[in-house]
């Protein structure tokens, strides 16, 4: 009898997690095959690769190696999701701390020319554990507030790391130290371009989307034109706006007085606005078309006018879809605003293109890293807001 009961019980077999196996292999490559940091005599010359064991004191390299070694089975096996999430954050914290220690350890005392840059192994390991964290968060199906809380905690952790000076000996922070004022000035310009064009596109795009929803012929024309605009490469559109805006500023001195010209922020703002219209208009139309007919019938039965139905029923129900379009626009514009530097529009792209011209990759990172971080944070926050305002599906009994 006991034998039959034992036979009936399912055997617990610890299997492999397919994505986790890929992550574990990536960790192994980043650990053993790629340099953790690059030792450069100055900011221009290529660096000499240094592995984890060559870049850190013995005790620190052993601790980091132990963290990476533990992460491999945790990632590759079907371990509890909360363990995987904790392991990903622990590994990311260890990598962030020890790359700063490597910068201090490898920099000769008093040498201001040497640059210690995060190597390919650092970026590969960071990407692998970020993927593990994202997969774990997806499996946990956290609500919007927990996701925002995690984002805030990560931001506070990074801020504390920067404030502590742990990364001061890394090359990207040395580039920042010599350009701190310019960094914040261009950062303000970048935010103004991305968010300013979004505000204008939202103010124009939502009413235009409502008009397209009401008039099918107008919808066809507007969406076809906006789709055609999206096929124009961003750098080409920036360039095409230089001549007309320059001519307009010459013809109307008042516009020139407020900063409108053929180069600078004006053509960048206009180009970003044009690119932003399609997602806002199309999502407004899709959201309004998706409003249940029963809701409109009930509103008509209550004696509501078309205007009342639009503002009290249709737009509130379509708002989550419209907000999704706004999210797409914001993330898109944060990236596209980098191109504005090519026409004198400023933004983080200034450092990206200066770095490319000087073959100084640390300067490129000074512009690229905050752009990526800003886009990622914006996406997480707006995704959470979309989920908050979306109607909840009734639970099944």
UniProtKB/TrEMBL annotation:
Subcellular location: Cell membrane
Domain ABC transmembrane type-1 residue range list: 187-382
Highest taxon above the source species: Bacteria
Family matches, as InterPro entries: ABC_transp_perm/SBD (IPR051204), MetI-like (IPR000515), MetI-like_sf (IPR035906)
UniProt topology in membrane: Multi-pass membrane protein
Keyword field: Membrane, Transmembrane, Transmembrane helix, Transport
GO biological process: glycine betaine transport; transmembrane transport
Segments passing through the bilayer: 19-37, 57-77, 89-107, 113-133, 145-163, 191-213, 225-248, 310-330, 336-356, 363-386
Presence of the UniProt keyword Membrane in the record: yes
Entry-linked Gene3D superfamilies: MetI-like
GO cellular component: plasma membrane
Family: Belongs to the binding-protein-dependent transport system permease family.
Protein name per Swiss-Prot or TrEMBL: ABC transporter permease
